[in-house]
Write a structure and sequence with these properties.
Order of helices and strands: EHEEEEEHEE
Strand content: 25-35%
Oligomer: single chain
Strand order of the largest sheet: 1-8-7-5-6
Largest sheet: 5 strands, antiparallel
Helix content: 10-25%
Structural class: mainly beta
Distance between the termini: 6 Å
Length: about 150
C-alpha cells in the first residue's frame, strides 16, 4: 500500500507561526479563490475566502543538487490530512510529474515521468517496487511545484 503525505504537522506549524521559508522569507498571506490553492498539509484545496500561506519549500533534509525548492500553498489555519482516501490534490489535475529518489534523497535517473491522473498510483507503486527507490515525489506537471511524497506504508 502506498501513502501520500504532504508537509509534516511541525513544518506546517512553523510556517503558520511565521518561520522563514527555504529562502529566509516570512510566509506571504493570500486569500483563496477556492480553485488554485492546494494545501500541502491537508492535501485539499483551500476553500474560497480562507487565508492561504505561500512559501518557498524544499522537501529535502539537506542542500544538494537534487534538492529542488519551489512555491507551495498552505492553509493559514490548522488542518490535517484525511488518512483514508486519495488526497483531493491528487485527483484534480489531468496529469502529474512523478520522480523516484533513493534513501540519500538523490533522484534515481530514468524514474521521472509525467503520468495521467488515473495512472498515478500504479506508477508510484511500480517505482517503489524498484530496488533503490525509497520514495516518490509528486509534482505539478505544469508548474513543477512539489505536491506530496509517496512512500510504502
Amino acid at each position: 500500500m502506498t501513502i501520500a503525505r504532504g508537509l509534516t504537522k511541525s513544518e506546517a506549524f512553523a510556517y503558520r507561526g511565521g518561520a522563514p521559508d527555504a529562502y529566509g522569507n516570512a510566509p506571504e498571506r493570500l486569500v483563496s479563490d477556492g480553485v488554485g490553492f492546494p494545501c500541502r498539509c491537508c492535501l485539499r484545496y483551500v476553500p474560497a475566502g480562507q487565508e492561504v500561506l505561500l512559501v518557498a519549500h524544499r522537501p529535502f533534509d539537506a542542500l544538494h543538487p537534487y534538492a529542488e525548492t519551489g512555491p507551495i500553498f498552505l492553509c493559514a489555519q490548522e488542518c490535517a490530512p484525511d488518512d483514508d482516501a486519495l488526497p483531493e490534490v491528487l485527483c484534480k489535475a489531468p496529469d502529474y510529474l512523478l520522480k523516484g529518489y533513493d534513501a540519500a534523497q538523490r533522484i534515481v535517473y530514468g524514474s521521472g515521468k509525467v503520468v495521467p491522473q488515473g495512472d498515478l498510483g500504479g506508477y508510484a507503486e511500480t517505482l517503489l517496487a524498484q530496488k533503490g527507490i525509497a520514495f516518490v515525489d509528486v509534482r505539478s506537471a505544469r508548474n513543477n511545484c512539489w505536491i506530496a511524497r509517496i512512500t510504502t506504508g
